Amino acid sequence: MNGANALIRSLVDQGVEVVFGLPGGQAIPIYDALYEREDLRNLLMRHEQGAVHAADGYARATGKVGVCIATSGPGATNLVTGLATAYMDSIPVLAITGQVKTTALGKDSFQEADITGITLPVTKHNFLVKNADDLPRVIAEAMYIASTGRPGPVLVDIPIDVSLAETDYKPVKEVNIRSYSPHIEINDEDIKRAAELINASERPVIYAGGGVVLSGASEEITKLSDMTHILVTTTLLGKGAISEYSPHSLGMLGMHGTAYANHAVDQCDLLIAIGARFDDRVTGKLAAFAKRAKVIHIDIDPAEIGKTVAPDVSVIGDCKEVLTRLIPMVNPRQETDWNKKIMQWRTEFALKCPADDGEIHPQCVIDCLSEMTKGEAIIVTDVGQHQMFTALYYKTTSPKRFLSSGGLGTMGYGFPAGIGAAVGCPDLPVFAICGDGGFQMTLQELAPALEYKVPVKIVLMNNRYLGMVRQWQELFWNRRYSGVDISYQPDFKLLAEAYGAVGIVIEKPGEVKDAFARSLEIKDKPVILDFHIAREENVFPMIPAGQSIEEMMVNRPR
Amino acid sequence: MQHTITVLVENKPGVLARVSGLFARRGFNIESLAVSITDDPTISRMSIVVSGDDSILDQINKQTDKLIDVIKVIDYVDTPIVERELAMIKVNAENMQRAEIMQIVDIFHAKIIDISETTFTIEVTGNTDKVDAIERLLAPFGIKEMVRTGMIAMARGSITAVG
Ligand SMILES: Cc1ncc(C[n+]2csc(CCOP(=O)(O)OP(=O)(O)O)c2C)c(N)n1
To answer: N or C: which end of chain A has fewer CB within 10 A?
Structure first.
């Protein structure tokens, strides 16, 4: 068989069930090998960015590696944003790119781009395959690297002559990379010291990040907090690490976190950071972050320890494994005054939906969706105000059910990632919460969503502004609304219909619930729910960038 | 503070770019970098002199170690090491000055490896201080060209990087 067929065989042998992509000259042999192949679903997307975000959404929702394919040059460079998105959030994605033939490499050939060079900073690793015999091994290694240790995207670049070359296919059973050993022996002493700190603390708080979701440590976190009554705040990517219906959940912390989570972190004497990386959107001004607290940092990536915050105790290892060994050493405890104090904050600063004034407020839309789905749905967000409203008001009950571009903050992510999630989890309703700005960056993926009957429900928070930027301009730039008015826009209902999808316009608060109910009945195609929301709504609480909790705005300043 | 670290990497194309790119991207300052293959042809060895405080060095080590093609990072903090670099210095050497330059070369146990009517080319090996010192002493004669290899290092005694 030729290299391309060996590639596809390797993917199937590695358990890959679906690929998202778009072909081109240098990828034709790869697509040829996919032709009439029944054991590998091939979804033709309309832009490579859509393909890589779909692979990413698939990976986040299923926990498997998401795979995408693009051709050389422009096809490959269109993947960069999605690879960077996956890299920042540690998502296992495998990108396969066609490349000009090996003898044309480095000659500025037609549609040549040094994609391994370009993606060095945004992939966990990448390969340029120069010999077809190497393909099965490279694919096995790429899948292994993407999914083990701290996961991340891996790119495999395949020149067309390598795709065409004859090779014997020999399956690769075992991967052995001498310079890569993802399994870390956990140090018992570190666990002991962590347990001692927890047992000695009076005002502990758990700060759980995306690593908890990735390692599947939700049960352990829940168990730990149930037996100790230690409250848990999560990052954006940590949403679902503990059910947000749990009395021990404090919701999200950070710039747009709940006031009670931020107060708890500010006043705690021990911060237990698990699978979290002290991102600046979480910490704000570092010197003031959790300044009264000792810090325990548990992470699989040794390089995260001490990168921004020097912990008092660190444990390097997979969160689930670490917690499993830590829990027996932690003393159970009853609720304390500290719990009461946090409960007071929780009442005092409770999130409230704005009162009904005839306008649709995004908080109420999300609150309604949260109520209706009871955390059973997969929620994917785009980036902007709607993302933060969703993070605040949607109660996620389990991991892998809230997907969002956290680290890179990629507009255009939500809808295609929603397609990937829906393909990976066909039995769950998928809602892509998008702004009218971000949705217009990747809405062309409506075509494959219809073609493959992917029933993503697009919750369009239509404020005819690039809302989050407008909010910053309102608060910090003297209301000079430069470059944010996007009221020149399509009629989204007609747009949906142009593609053959369903469009629903929602203009009054009373229509919100019905619209969601209608959308849930549509099971074979996407729906655009065009919510005409209050134009100048702002996300609060907000701690301005680089500031501390003292500067927190709970409401719109006068 | 200056530090010498040794990085053992897979001898594959592009690995140097991965390491140097990482340093550039994360704002780590490379003072010198020397690379070549080792007695094992599948392994290359990089000697990197970097500067930064303890936490920066810690990050340099860990982030470098994370690269898939990096087999091992050795930071010689508490280990005594031998360090050497090689320099070739082409210096103006008119008749009047020749004796004086030869004296300097002698004292530094350096070597004159090429002579023309108007120049000497001098080879010197040693630690950075020594190379700096001879450069300083030759400067008044007029250095026409100079090249330094960058520092290479090994632990003293029986300790090896590979073992
Ligand atoms: C690709 C990309 N470009 C620009 C930005 C900067 N940005 C962050 S939020 C935002 C506004 C988003 O507007 P919209 O999609 O309408 O959502 P809203 O904030 O109104 O909910 C922009 C432009 C970004 N995050 N990503």
So the answer is: C
Split at pLDDT 50, 70, 90, the class of B163 is low
* Bond into A541 cis (ω within 30): yes
The answer to whether the Cβ–Cβ distance between B68 and A117 falls below 8 Å is: no
pLDDT band at residue A511 under the 50/70/90 scheme = very high
Of A180, A303, A306, the CB nearest to B68: A180
| Amino acid at the residue A130 | K
The DSSP call for residue A190 is H
Contacts of A104 (CB under 8 A, 6+ apart): A112
Which among B102, B107, B110, B113 is positioned nearest to B85, based on CA atoms?
B110
Token digits of residue A254: 């950070």
Residue of A125, A179, A297, A305 to mutate for B, most B C-beta atoms under 10 A: A179
pLDDT single digits (tens) A58-93 = 999 999 999 999 999 999 999 999 999 999 999 999
pTM here is 0.96
A473: CA distance to ligand 1 center in Å? Answer: 13
Does the structure show a pLDDT above 70 at A306?
A: yes
Q: Which residues of A touch B67 (CB under 8 A)?
A: 125
The values of phi and psi at residue B18, to 5°, are -60, -45
Q: What pLDDT score does A217 carry?
A: 98
Q: Rounded mean pLDDT of A418-438?
A: 98
Q: Which residues of B touch A303 (CB under 8 A)?
A: 59, 62-63, 65-66
What tokens does A238 get?
């940590």
Task: Give B-chain residues touching A179 at CB under 8 angstroms.
Answer: 9-10, 68-71
Q: Answer whether B68 sits within 8 Å of A301, measured CB to CB.
A: no
Q: Are A119 and A269 in contact (CB under 8 A)?
A: no
How many C-beta neighbours within 10 Å does residue A109 have?
Answer: 16
**Could you say which residues from 86 to 125 on chain B have a Cβ atom under 8 Å away from some Cβ of chain A?**
none
Judge whether residue A229 has pLDDT over 70: yes
As a whole-number percent, the residues of chain A with pLDDT over 70 amount to: 100
Q: Where are the alpha helices (DSSP H) in chain B?
A: 15-25, 54-66, 95-107, 128-138
pLDDT value of residue B77: 82
Cα–Cα distance for residue pair B15/A30, rounded to 1 Å: 27
Q: Calculate mean pLDDT across residues A119-144.
A: 98
- Between chains, do B68 and A124 touch, taking CB under 8 Å as contact? yes
Query: If contacts are CB pairs under 8 Å, which of residues 69-88 in chain B contact chain A?
Result: 69-71
pLDDT exceeds 80 at position A277: yes
> Over chain A, what is the mean pLDDT?
97
In this predicted structure, the answer to whether residue A36 has a pLDDT above a threshold of 90 is: no
The 3-state DSSP class for residue A338 equals helix
If phi > 0 it is left, if psi is from -120 to 50 it is alpha, else beta; for residue B146 that is beta
d(CA A30, CA A416): 23
Regarding the beta carbon of A435 and ligand 1, being less than 6 Å apart is answered yes
> Is A236 within 8 Å of A212 (Cβ atoms)?
no
